[in-house]
Amino acid sequence: MQQPVTAVKGIGEETAAALADIGIRTVGELLAYAPYRYDDYEQKDLAAVRHEEKVTVEGKVHSAPVLTYYGKKKSRLSFRLLADRYLITVVCFNRPYLKEKITLNETVTVIGKWDRHRQTINAYELRFGPAPETTGIEPVYSVRSPLTVKMMRRLMKAAFDQFGSHIPELLPPALRRAYRLVDKQEALRALHFPRSREELHQARRRLAYEEFLLYQLKMQALRKIMRDERRGVAHSYSEEQLASFLAGLPFSLTNAQRRVIDEILVDMRAPRQMNRLLQGDVGSGKTVVAAVALYAAALSRFQGALMVPTEILAEQHARSLAELFAGTDVTLALLTSSVKGKRRKEVLAELEEGTIDIVVGTHALIQEGVQFHRLGLVITDEQHRFGVEQRRILREKGHAPDVLMMTATPIPRTLAMTVFGDMDVSVLDEMPAGRKKVETYWVKHHQFARVLDFIEKELRRGHQAYVICPLIEESEKLDVQNAIDVHSQLVHYYRGKYEVGLMHGRLSPEEKEAVMRAFSENRIHVLVSTTVVEVGVNVPNATVMVIYDAERFGLAQLHQLRGRVGRGDAQSYCILIADPKSEIGKERMRIMTETTDGFVLAEKDLELRGPGDVFGTKQSGLPEFRYGDPVHDYRIFEVAHRDAAKLIASPAFWRGEAYAGLRAELEASGALGGEKWD
């Protein structure tokens, strides 16, 4: 399997170079390369085919093809086809050369997407002559020139004929029997040369389970190394002092906060390094949980650091913590790029001497020259905004400090198990008492004037409003309202009465800070912004969130934006302005008006959009699975998660012959190699 692809008959240096471009260098990588879809040549009665389903239809050309051009070099070719008892329209885009090849009464086979409403097939393949006499399931591979799909099918057959019998079996017989899984060789054969849909289903099921199991074994092994081998800080503090601090809080903790605080304190008291993710919806009270953890660290004579993405957020957290720690001996400092000169030198010196217990800051915390006396707890807020490398630098400012990552982005369970499989996860799934729900309404664009009147009513009460737009300035590609246009419109509308500010990603960090500061101090009454405002800023006086072209945003993002309001005592409102064309767009708007539970929304978003979009694959480290999808195959994923935990904990796994293949894969992944756990 490790031989270069040139070992396959028919693959020369040129083809090998083309295969290397799509990540295939060895025989094993070639055999493992999965088709991204299948062409099904099995013909069905069109009455039984669902709208937008892929279909294969054989029929006779009933009308001469009509070719029309539009845009630059774009074309649309259409003709009528008599297929069995149906007269339908076939449409081919950007293939004008077909016009000369299509003749009346000729038999053609069309493969494409069925538009049931228009009785039209959007064809992506046209074959002249009758459909092939096969079960008709052919793999379609993702390729780039000079490779073609036909060539890939041929190469795959050659590779399988030559090396198929050498495909190693990784899963032990006990697991294969338990889940009635076909063996690896049979699964890969069916993946590339399926004889039926059922055979293909069983192949994918087997390969997805193995892929998930290997991933989860890696995660669980990392977790075990973290627990067993990474000696951490064992915090030791006065239970009475901590209880007194909790009793003195100006509000009652929710049951969820108490549960999560207990989980964190158990970790902090243990001699191993804590590696925990705290998920909590907007407004669920993560700051208080962080404060308790930081206070416990200070009581243990260790320092705590809280790193956040923006200066304003750092200042807000510093103010909140200062209020909570009033009356205690805790010393607190703020360190951002705005802390300069003499004050900066003082903070750095006091951190190094250990006279500062807790520091709140931005990326400034990980710069050279920032030294801690005894760092014992690192907390990052909105952790996905920081790269792995940035988090590592902060962690290494101490000797294996406890790590708590916080996020207000609700992450569905399967995704949390995927991305954070090597971490313990705590969830704040309860809102503090008395917090009013943000009322959410969906309106159409033609009702914008009414929205402006509604905003003005709130402004007259002394409140403020956000208006969020998807783009900064006009774009030819997307017909969406942009921030600069909307800002001009609102400046004109509220002229002489209210200040309208503008915020977007092209402003410098200093300009963004200035705009947000003016808004938080109520010098700007209406803030027109792109989604840069999404995370963190707390303006309790803002009661209206208007989101323009709301269908352009995912549910998780809409929910984050909605969470910017409803932070004070007054009733707050979220108004979604959208004219969605698709059913998914309409469904998103309906869900937003019906629920304010971030976890429900995150699960729905995952169903509607898929994990990469929801979580921002590049930022999250979400793995690209080849055969399975943790969302749609979540049952297989959970079984693999459970099995991996059992195997890692079992002595038989580490010694038994049956598990040698899995162990070898685990070792090859680097999960057992010490420093790979990042």
TrEMBL record:
<comment type="function">
    <text>Plays a critical role in recombination and DNA repair. Helps process Holliday junction intermediates to mature products by catalyzing branch migration. Has replication fork regression activity, unwinds stalled or blocked replication forks to make a HJ that can be resolved. Has a DNA unwinding activity characteristic of a DNA helicase with 3'-5' polarity.</text>
</comment>
<keyword id="KW-0547">Nucleotide-binding</keyword>
<dbReference type="InterPro" id="IPR012340">
    <property type="entry name" value="NA-bd_OB-fold"/>
</dbReference>
<feature type="domain" description="Helicase C-terminal">
    <location>
        <begin position="447"/>
        <end position="607"/>
    </location>
</feature>
<keyword id="KW-0378">Hydrolase</keyword>
<keyword id="KW-0227">DNA damage</keyword>
<keyword id="KW-0233">DNA recombination</keyword>
<dbReference type="GO" id="GO:0006310">
    <property type="term" value="P:DNA recombination"/>
</dbReference>
<keyword id="KW-0067">ATP-binding</keyword>
<feature type="domain" description="Helicase ATP-binding">
    <location>
        <begin position="267"/>
        <end position="428"/>
    </location>
</feature>
<dbReference type="InterPro" id="IPR027417">
    <property type="entry name" value="P-loop_NTPase"/>
</dbReference>
<dbReference type="Pfam" id="PF17191">
    <property type="entry name" value="RecG_wedge"/>
</dbReference>
<dbReference type="Pfam" id="PF00270">
    <property type="entry name" value="DEAD"/>
</dbReference>
<keyword id="KW-0413">Isomerase</keyword>
<dbReference type="GO" id="GO:0003677">
    <property type="term" value="F:DNA binding"/>
</dbReference>
<dbReference type="InterPro" id="IPR014001">
    <property type="entry name" value="Helicase_ATP-bd"/>
</dbReference>
<dbReference type="InterPro" id="IPR001650">
    <property type="entry name" value="Helicase_C-like"/>
</dbReference>
<dbReference type="InterPro" id="IPR011545">
    <property type="entry name" value="DEAD/DEAH_box_helicase_dom"/>
</dbReference>
<dbReference type="InterPro" id="IPR004609">
    <property type="entry name" value="ATP-dep_DNA_helicase_RecG"/>
</dbReference>
<comment type="similarity">
    <text>Belongs to the helicase family. RecG subfamily.</text>
</comment>
<dbReference type="InterPro" id="IPR047112">
    <property type="entry name" value="RecG/Mfd"/>
</dbReference>
<dbReference type="GO" id="GO:0016787">
    <property type="term" value="F:hydrolase activity"/>
</dbReference>
<keyword id="KW-0347">Helicase</keyword>
<dbReference type="InterPro" id="IPR045562">
    <property type="entry name" value="RecG_dom3_C"/>
</dbReference>
<dbReference type="Pfam" id="PF00271">
    <property type="entry name" value="Helicase_C"/>
</dbReference>
<dbReference type="InterPro" id="IPR033454">
    <property type="entry name" value="RecG_wedge"/>
</dbReference>
<keyword id="KW-0238">DNA-binding</keyword>
<protein>
    <recommendedName>
        <fullName>ATP-dependent DNA helicase RecG</fullName>
        <ecNumber>5.6.2.4</ecNumber>
    </recommendedName>
</protein>
<dbReference type="GO" id="GO:0005524">
    <property type="term" value="F:ATP binding"/>
</dbReference>
<keyword id="KW-0234">DNA repair</keyword>
<dbReference type="GO" id="GO:0006281">
    <property type="term" value="P:DNA repair"/>
</dbReference>
<dbReference type="Pfam" id="PF19833">
    <property type="entry name" value="RecG_dom3_C"/>
</dbReference>
<dbReference type="GO" id="GO:0043138">
    <property type="term" value="F:3'-5' DNA helicase activity"/>
</dbReference>
